[in-house]
Amino acid sequence: GWAGEGPGASGKNRHVCHAAARLEMGSLWEEFNRLGTEMIVTKAGRWELEWPGELQRLGGTPFPSPSLCRRMFPTFQVKLSGLDPLADYVLLMDFIPLDDKRYRYAFHSSSWLAAGRAEPAAPGRVHFHPDSPAKGAQWMRQIVSFDKLKLTNNLLDDNGHIILNSMHRYQPRFHVVFVDPRRDSERFAHQNFKSFSFPETQFMAVTAYQNHRITQLKIASNPFAKGFRDGDPEP
Amino acid sequence: GWAGEGPGASGKNRHVCHAAARLEMGSLWEEFNRLGTEMIVTKAGRWELEWPGELQRLGGTPFPSPSLCRRMFPTFQVKLSGLDPLADYVLLMDFIPLDDKRYRYAFHSSSWLAAGRAEPAAPGRVHFHPDSPAKGAQWMRQIVSFDKLKLTNNLLDDNGHIILNSMHRYQPRFHVVFVDPRRDSERFAHQNFKSFSFPETQFMAVTAYQNHRITQLKIASNPFAKGFRDGDPEP
DNA sequence: CCCTTTTCACCTAGGTGGTAAGAT
DNA sequence: ATCTTACCACCTAGGTGAAAAGGG
């Protein structure tokens, strides 16, 4: 579907007021949403600094090992239009709680039940698209994919990942921010961005899948889970 | 080693005149250079557009498959200093012929012999570091690695790879370019960059390794070639 | 004969859910 | 009981040189 408008679409800078975003993989998102999308959040384990021996032999420096956090699937991807091709933009995402409830999954009825009030909100973080900043022309040239975005339930995470509470519901949000070259651009900050929310991308954060139909749809549609597919060939 | 100065170090813009670059993995480069470094260049094969079936099922769009070109090993990596932390810089590399000769390898003497004049120079291309442009602070924060740079001998390559003639010698060059915000910045273009050449990184372009000791050093030091190592454990 | 291309097994690197054990 | 963690086999994706085949 197309663009949910940001709050207060009026009074926007001309560089963002015509911006539009189309969610990619819309039919897949909707398929998940009908079942109740779940996204895995795991603790980042905080492996020690890695120095693989190979690298050590070569005289390189150690680097942080890949975290154990999980990506989203489906991946949040949008096709942008209406940007100024020559202006600079920053693209980013955040996640807002959909309510102040905590949930549990009732296996007997295969449904989610409210189970008390939400836990204290995790530190609010944003994920900047790693190509930011870039010209409008470059953002519009192809699909923008947030496949580097990772979710964790580790409140102490220091890798900059998105921190979410398990068993809570979230709405991903997408923001287009015009990089205002004016000296006093702070004064116009509220005019220089436009936000998009796609209701079909909301999800429940979990540490393990609860709904078996979600598990099966993940296995069927995520290429990295091919090892768990039964032998039913698909064209 | 440290920085070979660019041509005409005088009259440089203050944003680049103090720039310095230290080559990483220097001892490995020197070990290769003592034997006569060789780098593989292969034709990019130009596979058809890939549409893996996975992606098709998910409603995605096809994308060009990875090319068959080869990276450099060792990878060209530098540690930068002396940049203005708040200024924008573009980093790039190019490759200049070391002479106008063509070579062949004499197996009986295990040495390279001149074998006529160079073939017409391939189209001169540059490789921009994919993080460009970025602030000086970000470039100086950690080692800058050109591991996405790929070499090909395909004169018709349209993936933007570096085109080299096999059996010719080359000197990699590294350039730091200050992004001048002045309107008439073209007038100062010659002042706004600084170039670095590390003699220990020069190499012979080949389609297959000629010197067996180079092959063995590549196998011993490149993690991706571990499958060809004999069972001699290294700490 | 000299050089290039193609294909291959074998790696690195890292994204999956399953499973069993652990925590509360 | 309910939720979380740790480890695992199994994938995707792609970087290696060997070996054989191809070309002039």
Automatic annotation (TrEMBL), chains A, B:
<dbReference type="GO" id="GO:0000785">
    <property type="term" value="C:chromatin"/>
</dbReference>
<keyword id="KW-0539">Nucleus</keyword>
<dbReference type="GO" id="GO:0001708">
    <property type="term" value="P:cell fate specification"/>
</dbReference>
<dbReference type="GO" id="GO:0000981">
    <property type="term" value="F:DNA-binding transcription factor activity, RNA polymerase II-specific"/>
</dbReference>
<feature type="domain" description="T-box">
    <location>
        <begin position="23"/>
        <end position="230"/>
    </location>
</feature>
<protein>
    <submittedName>
        <fullName>TBX10 factor</fullName>
    </submittedName>
</protein>
<keyword id="KW-0238">DNA-binding</keyword>
<dbReference type="InterPro" id="IPR001699">
    <property type="entry name" value="TF_T-box"/>
</dbReference>
<dbReference type="InterPro" id="IPR008967">
    <property type="entry name" value="p53-like_TF_DNA-bd_sf"/>
</dbReference>
<dbReference type="InterPro" id="IPR018186">
    <property type="entry name" value="TF_T-box_CS"/>
</dbReference>
<keyword id="KW-0805">Transcription regulation</keyword>
<dbReference type="GO" id="GO:0009653">
    <property type="term" value="P:anatomical structure morphogenesis"/>
</dbReference>
<dbReference type="GO" id="GO:0045893">
    <property type="term" value="P:positive regulation of DNA-templated transcription"/>
</dbReference>
<dbReference type="Pfam" id="PF00907">
    <property type="entry name" value="T-box"/>
</dbReference>
<dbReference type="GO" id="GO:0000978">
    <property type="term" value="F:RNA polymerase II cis-regulatory region sequence-specific DNA binding"/>
</dbReference>
<dbReference type="InterPro" id="IPR036960">
    <property type="entry name" value="T-box_sf"/>
</dbReference>
<keyword id="KW-0804">Transcription</keyword>
<dbReference type="InterPro" id="IPR046360">
    <property type="entry name" value="T-box_DNA-bd"/>
</dbReference>
<dbReference type="GO" id="GO:0005634">
    <property type="term" value="C:nucleus"/>
</dbReference>
